[in-house]
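Hi again,

Forgot to attach this to my earlier email, sorry! This is the prediction with flavin-adenine dinucleotide bound. I've pasted everything inline since the attachment limit keeps bouncing my files.
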Amino acid sequence: MKPSPFGYRLAESLEHALELHSESAGDAIWLAGGHSVVPSLALRLQAPAVLVDISRLPELSGITYDDCGLRIGALTRHAEILSHPLVASHAPMLVEAARFVAHPAIRNRATFGGNLALADPASEFPAVVRCLGAVFDIVGPEGEREVSAEDFFLDLYTTAIEPGEILRSILIPSAPLGTLTAFDELARRHGDFAMVGTAVRIVPRAGAIEDVGICFHSVGATPMRARAAEELLRGRPLDRAAIRSAQEALSLDLDPMDDPTLSGATRLHLARVLLGRILARLAEQMD
Ligand SMILES: Cc1cc2nc3c(=O)[nH]c(=O)nc-3n(C[C@H](O)[C@H](O)[C@H](O)COP(=O)(O)OP(=O)(O)OC[C@H]3O[C@@H](n4cnc5c(N)ncnc54)[C@H](O)[C@@H]3O)c2cc1C
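Structure tokens for the complex follow:
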């Protein structure tokens, strides 16, 4: 199959990109790394009149750190997430997760912003940024606005980004001192989309868990917070009993659907196994 005919425009600045989009009367899509857009055109899942190439915009580039936290430009490649020292120091869970994202050839081209804007429910980064309480910096014809990770992922492949808006950067707020994080996933083969993946953030205080965030991917339409499990862990030491009750509570948090590759019950079981492994790892670090 070949794509429907489409036009191509290279944006030279953020302002220019917004202009090009408005000239298309809404029938344009952004092109960043192209690793999802191009296959979707080839399969005719999308047929826009024009692709607006935003891949060279300096306003969407760069990784910086200040009092607010770590700011990652939307055009940051997955490979840079893996290798950038500021990401390693201030958001090591992103580095852990990036190792599971596709393969080096894909990671050299695909962008962090493109990944989050796509909001594939099987994707690693959405779960990590939701777990870390990220804030999305979005620019559009009406100006700029910030959206919290809690409000960003709306449904399957659907985010709070409105047509004509661009995700400019993502802020990962500074974490309290001593915060521990871990990410892991279960996939049939390394590099495949995961059967289940989990991002966990713990703030330990005096031998107990003061605060915790748990977010799964590949178990629902969006990255899923495990609020019942979090509630059971808060204020308790991270011992075997606490881990077991958090695992049990997942039936309140997750209700994965059956699909041709895996039953919902198996996916829930795998989520429990993975959560148990990650919490046990974090418990060792708390000792
Ligand atoms: C073989 C293969 C294996 C993969 N495996 C994995 C995997 O294991 N895990 C995983 O998470 N991902 C995986 N991916 C997806 C990949 O990691 C990227 O997430 C994906 O290609 C999107 O990034 P991109 O820069 O290529 O975006 P594009 O394809 O350019 O764009 C994707 C979508 O986001 C929109 N968009 C892009 N940038 C912006 C922006 N700044 N603001 C607003 N909208 C924007 C585009 O219009 C489009 O709708 C895989 C991809 C391939 C091809």
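The pocket of flavin-adenine dinucleotide is lined by residues 29-37, 60, 74, 78, 101-102, 106, 110-111, 113-115, 117-118, 120, 123-125, 161, 166-167, 193 (CB under 6 Å). The chain is about 35% helix and 25% strand.

That should be everything now.

G.
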